[in-house]
Amino acid sequence: MRRLLPSFVFIQLAACATPPGGSHAGLPAAAPDGAQATLALLETSDLHANVLSYDYYKLAPDASLGVERTATLIRQARAEFPNTLLLDNGDTIQGTALADYQALAAPVGCGETLAVYKALNRLGVEGGGLGNHDFNYGLPYLSQVTGARFDVEGVDPAAPRCAGASFPLVLANIYSAKTKRPLFQPFAILDKRIEATGADGKPLQARVKVGIIGFTPPGILGWDKRWLEGRVYAEGVRESALKYVPQMRAQGADIVVAILHGGLDGAPYTPQMENAGLYLAQVPGIDAMLLGHAHEAFPNPASSSAPFNLPGVDKAKGTVHGVPTVMASLWGKHLGVIGLRLKRDGQRWLVDKAQTTVEARSTLLPAQPAPASGEMAGGAAAKRYVAADPAIAELVAAEHAATIRYVQTPLGSTDFPMTSYFADVGDVSAVQAVNEAQAAYLADYVRANLPQYAQLPVLSVSAPFKSGAAGPGDYTDVKQGAIALNNAADLYLYPNTLSGVKVDGAGLKAWLEKAASRFNTIDPSQTAPQELVNSGFAGYNFDMLTSPDVSYRIDVTQPQGRRIRDLSYRGKPVRDAQEFLVATNNYRASGGGGFPGVDGSSTVFASPDANRDVLIAYVQRTRSLKRASHGAARSWRFAPVRTQGPVVFHSAPGKFDLARAAGLDNVTQLQADDGAGKGLALYGIDLSRP
């Protein structure tokens, strides 16, 4: 049985000689009634191993991301607030080539600390949660790099405790199938020394007991089935909270902070719910919530995101059913800050919600008008970000250099740029090679091992995994010329494994209908500009076929679920009962994204090989990719429609030539800066010329 930390723990900040507020030796007696204090909860979320401001896929610095930038926001917040508590939301150890290098190419040893945890330890993180992607490399690796001991099948519970996070990691809703006990400690109570003010206005030293409890999406059991099946099981977020929050209060927690690696969803609650924040906020006893997973910044009064506009959600004040709530977007781009206003009443501290403040602070500095001589195209001023903390780069210099050497391993070449800047409007240059690699792999396996399916057509779906959600740098961009490992990782971002599923024609159409939710419904008679892309539907869920054997049209004038027209295979309409094999990834095959009929029951082959490795082998075997054969097979087009007003979408500025090279003659750049603050340009598309 793994040993849980004591109920009352104090975590000393690694970045400080003493914890904020002074030495933890000799904690002061309980504060008198009427004492007041502000405790700032600081949140990092979805760092995805972006330690430095560097894009390993493009082999170039990127000042818009990285823990080394967040470190500056943390330092500023600590200077502003006398009392702070820094917490990490999860999705911490996976997501960059640095992460893959340390997990797969040159696995870290038991005595070595993962680069991202080196940084978080240095910054003095005091507690953290676990995200779904933290399970991507399997339980033995997760146990090792977190410094935790798991009593699960395949992991030796008596193995030495390895180097890892120097702060408690909490997770309440994932259990060992072997012991029926939580995989990690479900919660921890941090005994914090704080500076407060007495009822008489005089300063005093006090203590507050902060309970932290963590939750991750139950969907990990399907998304990482090969690692988790039979080893762990999940409980619903609300069910776990109702079980443990009273225990936390009974053990003396003045304040309970929920670290939910999930967002908000207005659908009826189920124990399998991926984004259960709306319902977690209604559990009695929760004083604050730290959200994640959705890769958005909350609060954000200007957001049009549907979850942020649900009843009970105040996107301006940063509350969910009255509970102060923050989400710090992703990759270190934001720092969540909840300024909890505390007042001592009787035997405990209470939160004054009316006086509490919530912010998602960006590393992007406010725009300053550029002088005429320094203006960029379109008059947009250059973006400026907070300075990086040089101590972080020094800390991981060796790992950074080794990763760069690793990703420069040559694979082949391409005679065309492979990009996702215009994937939403028909450019398949960054998707077709992935589909070809997956289809070839599945077809070869079926011929050798599954003769009962040998007569079925083999198709493949993939998506533009990078589609601008995080700004103009968040696109796949493989230049014409040599292809190396970093380019393969740019084309296939995630460490998924390949799966083959069997669907009929009706199921294939339903799959494509779900993918077509990527688009808003366009009213042809409207004269005002209309947004083509539904930003609430993630680009990585925009599955598309890119086969010369298949064609279909997407009619964006129709409501979601009724958009796929003229679906044909080899020139003939696809029949509802016609059967196909479709190559995809384990996330999609197991139900990820909620695609109808794709829930694990239709999987006929679950490969141990990663989709990215399948792509790498394909490029090595093909050697030279040509646009005509590897980047121009558009299975889908928009159904033609003439609109009274413009239809617009957003992408990186200055990429118009790539649209033309991909044959998208119906696209124009309207503005070099769309004015939304992300650095994207505004483009128009003429849907009458699909």
Overall morphology: globular
Taking pLDDT < 50 over at least 5 consecutive residues as the criterion, the unreliable ranges are 1-25, 372-380
**Distance separating the two termini:** 62 Å
- Helix count? 17
Helix content: 10-25%
Q: What Rg, in angstroms, do the CA atoms define? A: 26 Å
- Write out the CATH superfamily name of the largest domain: Metallo-dependent phosphatases
Number of strands: 37
Report the CATH architecture of the largest domain. 4-Layer Sandwich
What is the fold-level CATH name, i.e. the topology of the largest domain?
Answer: Purple Acid Phosphatase, chain A, domain 2
Strand content: 25-35%
Overview of this protein structure:
- By secondary structure, the protein is α/β, with parallel strands linked by helices.
- It has two domains: 8-22 and 33-379, 4-Layer Sandwich (Purple Acid Phosphatase, chain A, domain 2); 409-650, Alpha-Beta Complex (5'-nucleotidase,  domain 2).
- Strands 1, 8, 9, 11, 12, 13, 14, 15 and 16 form a nine-stranded mixed beta sheet that branches. Strands 2, 5, 6, 17, 18 and 19 form a six-stranded mixed beta sheet that branches.
- A hairpin with a 4-residue loop joins strand 3 (54-55) and strand 4 (60-61).
